[in-house]
Design goal:
Elements: H1 3-9, H2 13-18, H3 25-42, H4 56-62, E1 65-69, H5 77-85, H6 87-92, E2 95-96, E3 105-110, E4 118-125, E5 130-138, H7 142-161
Parallel strand pairs: 1-2, 1-3
Antiparallel strand pairs: 3-4, 4-5
Helix pairs in contact: 4-7, 5-7
Length: 166
């Protein structure tokens, strides 16, 4: 066998096994796991046991701490103040924390600044990236936007925390 034929010869499955020592162990584990998932699906066992629970109501019922992520155009303090004044939020049992790492939920605040008057929020469960709620108010500044957003957030929390009627 000459060198030229050995280069062109190994382009199929056999070349994969010959180059297996060059595969990163992480990629090999991922390939094995994905192969196992597809075979479990083929046998009718499904993959629902492996998927995390993505039910927004269940996620919110198990959550205890919220971090409010503001920015320079929309600081978190006005919203925090209005949430503490909201009876539905207080009844939820949730606490607002200052450390993002200790939070079960994150409320992201957004305002572009300038002539834009849209103040928005998104409530996210960072472990699953599930968006539990979002909303928008149009206001002159963050102080005037906070009561509307606090009302929307509290309403969504109450809606998800209330067990479904049977």
């Amino acid at each position: 066998m000459n060198k030229k034929s050995s280069k062109t010869e190994g382009r199929g499955v056999s070349s994969f096994f010959r180059g297996a020592s060059k595969i990163h162990p992480f990629h090999l584990i991922v390939a094995i796991l994905l192969g196992g998932l597809s075979s479990a699906t083929c046998w009718g066992q499904g993959t629902t046991e492996l998927a995390p629970k993505l039910d927004p109501a269940e996620i919110l019922r198990s959550s205890r701490a919220i971090f409010i992520a503001g920015n320079r155009n929309f600081p978190p303090e006005p919203l925090e103040k209005k949430l503490f004044e909201n009876k539905d939020f207080l009844a939820s049992g949730l606490v607002i924390v200052q450390d993002r790492q200790k939070a079960d939920l994150i409320i992201e605040l957004e305002h572009q600044g300038g002539i834009n008057r849209d103040f928005t929020y998104r409530m996210i469960h960072p472990a699953t990236d599930v968006v539990l709620g979002s909303g928008k108010v149009i206001a002159w500044d963050s102080i005037r936007a906070a009561p509307g957003l606090a009302g929307q957030i509290s309403k969504r929390i109450k809606q998800l925390r209330t067990p479904p009627k049977r």
